[in-house]
Design a protein that fits this description.
elongated, 9 helices, 76% helix, mainly alpha
Amino acid sequence: MKTYRLNKEIVIKCAMDLVAESGIEGLRLNKIADRLQVKSPSLYTHTGSVTELRSTVVCQAMNQFREQLVDSLMGRSQLHAFIELGKTWANYAKSHRVFYTVFYQSDYQLLYQETISEFLTSAFKRIFFDFELDEKGIKQVERVVTNYFRGYTENFDDYCLAEIDLISDLEIIYKGLTKSLKGVSQVV
């Protein structure tokens, strides 16, 4: 028997738990209603459609991811910031794989742009402050890092990357990016 007052936060928490268990496509209002011991129609007041609820859940997961990335940069700069950002990124991708893989689905590209990509723009400007990064340079850095971590998460089942190997990879990526950015800034 339910002993709480139904509200949006409770519904979203339940929805996030369901997504973590069965993926974004497994999110159904009837499943939430069963878990919360309410009738499905009462959820519409708090969620709208299942599509709106999925977007809300993905947005909340992206906000959590962004906040962890923000925390990883505190008090750090350049290579140290890049490594901590990368370690945090890898940890989130591994521990929240179901959410992380959804971030790159076409349905959520605009949300990703507004929530994660805009943050990464300012983070990379801060990390690579020695270079006058234009939009093209920022996108290059973001593309390299994002592609690395997308490949990293796709291979979790095949191998487990040790932290020392991750740090080594991040150092190599950082050095490659700085070399590339130096070449671009000298051409300009």
